[in-house]
Amino acid sequence: MSYNQPVYTDNDPQSELVTLNLGPTHPATHGVFQNVLQMDGERIVSGVSTIGYIHRAFEKIAEHRPFYQITPLTDRLNYCSSPINNMGWHMTVEKLLNIQTPKRVDYLRVIIMELSRIADHIICNTIIAQDTGATTTFLYLFQYREHIYEIFEEICGARLTTNIGRIGGLERDFNDVAFAKINKFLKEFPVALREFEGLLNRNRIFIDRTKGVAEVTAENALSYSWTGPLLRATGIDYDVRISEPYSSYQDFDFEIPVGTSGDIFDRYLVRNEEMWQSLRIIEQAMEKIKSEPKGVFHADVPDFYLPGKEQVYNNMEALIYHFKIVMGEIDAPKAEVYHAVEGGNGELGFYLINDGGRSPYRLHFRRPSFINYQMYAKMSEGMLLSDAIINMSSMNIIAGELDA
Amino acid sequence: MARATNTELIDLLGEKFGEQLFDVSEPYGLLTFSTTKDKVIDVLSFLKENGRINFNFLTDITAVHYPEKEHIAVVYHLHSMVSGIRVRVKVFLNEKDPKIASATVLWNGANWMERETYDFFGVKFEGHPDLRRILNMDDLGVHPMLKQYPLEDPNRVDKKDEFFGR
Questions:
Q1: Cβ–Cβ < 8 Å for B71, B94
Q2: Minimal Cα–Cα distance from B163 to chain A, Å?
Q3: pTM of the prediction?
Q4: B108:A224 CB<8 A
Q5: Homologous superfamily of the B6-145 domain (CATH)
Q6: What angle, rounded to 10 degrees, do the helices at A264-290 and A385-395 form?
Q7: Domains of chain A, start order
Q8: What is the ipTM, given to two decimal places?
Q9: Torsion angle, CA of A112/A114/A119/A120, rounded to 10 degrees?
Q10: Which of A99, A186, A187, B10 is deepest in the core (most CB within 10 A)?
Q11: Furthest-apart CA pair in chain A: how many Å?
């Protein structure tokens, strides 16, 4: 964190400019973000962002942890869609170890990832609505995030920082209650989402606040390395799920929505449409699972997959493998891997260098929030303060992912 | 457009830069090569602007410290959205004086990535418009991702790695 003290650009006592310290704990910014702004009335003349308030040195910690203990660190990057981070990390290690997961595991993972994508987009879109003054829509759709968390609770026992899955698969199979809850969600959520869209898509006040605000050209977005819904709103159809299908996304039929102008309204529409597409993917996955062998929830890799507790207590081999994994007797190959997944905010990349030990020699997270946020201060120049606030909401910057 | 292949890319780059590219490998299908710090901007701008391969997207910049070789490697990940492939470019710098030209002339997005690399590894990017620390505080005094800095207070006895099999 490099301190940006409020600086008065000119010492002229007649100056009309006011320095405004927006953040780090401002109720309108939904997180720890500081921007020191030079204001001309309601209009922003220039701004500087300060980040790093919740930096927790994950990359350093990861160099001292075995692979399976790094999963909880990834939870705390984008904590609005932690399952995607968990799965991304597991798939990186699986790529390193050349583990092939069974199809059923891939489909279960896709269900989890798409549910968390919906949860992530619910947060972003309802908060845009909230910041433009529409509290009803916020409260109305936000309860469905709660239903998604209940599904996660059923699958892994946790809600926000899920630590879901293991290297090689999942820690346990979905139970019947989880499937029932997913089915219930698939039935109820489209109704709510349609109503949410009905309240906002053609709402005059909402359109006036968002359309044409914070427009970004495709060239600019590419130059700033934007990914995810923000890039797609500018008209570029880049999605890691399509360009380099991971897990089993090549088996699904879905579309990538794109916008045209990259303004806040387009970002909102892109995220909404992505929720519809995620629902489609989950429906297809639920169908596909029925034809897969029941009860398969991990690959057969005893060297790396932590066995269940009851097996450790009752089965000699499981006990040996458990001991070997926990005590670090098994070495992973020397290699370097880059694996990317489509996170809620864009391309979430894991760059892993292994020198043969059981913890990474170097692990770098390519965090979309960090990279997307660097244009924020520049974008805000010339904008009204109230527009800059909804611009930040629409970029869905998550402090955990920003600061790592 | 058809997806370009790694062999095609190697041929194209070999023709242009010859001996200045070395250590070419393909770990997990991702083409990786090293270059020298004098040539890095030429290589990156060739990758970015060549119409056939068109690596228009900078995915990531980071660094790796190799204390026994006294190296700091700066690693660039580029992505060609047009031909659908990635490439990894490495530049090995001396850890005593890690200096390299800034890629901000090619991509605006390199700005914070380079600030982060400077913050954690002390790599000085020459020509960077605003090279300050970004995540750590200004008065930290060290570049904490270098391998000589331990994770925790080395005098603690209750968390020694040997007790955990590390």
A1: yes
A2: 9
A3: 0.92
A4: yes
A5: NADH:ubiquinone oxidoreductase Nqo5 subunit (3.30.460.80)
A6: 20
A7: 58-403 (1.10.645.10)
A8: 0.91
A9: 120
A10: A99
A11: 82
**Record: contact B77-A329, CB cut-off 8 A:** no
User: Among candidates A40, A133, A139, which has minimal Cα distance to A393?
Assistant: A133
Q: Report the C-alpha gap between A391 and A213 in whole angstroms.
A: 8
- pLDDT tens column, B88-104: 999 999 999 999 999 99
In this prediction, residue A13 carries a pLDDT of: 63
Tokens for A137, please give them.
């829509």
Burial category of B15 from C-beta neighbours within 10 Å (exposed 0-12, middle 13-18, buried 19 and up)? exposed
* A38 to A9, A35, A131: CA distances (angstroms): 8, 10, 22
- Mean pLDDT, consecutive 10-residue stretches, chain A (404 aa), reads 55 74 83 88 90 91 89 92 94 93 94 95 93 90 93 92 90 93 96 94 92 92 94 93 92 94 94 95 94 91 89 93 84 91 93 87 94 91 91 91 89
Q: How far apart are CA A9 and CA A12, in angstroms?
A: 9
Size of interface A-B (CB pairs under 8 A): 106
Residues A16, A37: Cα–Cα separation, whole Å = 13
- Which one of B81, B107, B151 has the shortest CB-CB distance to A60? B151
Q: What span, in angstroms and rounded, lies between the C-alpha atoms of A138 and A130?
A: 6
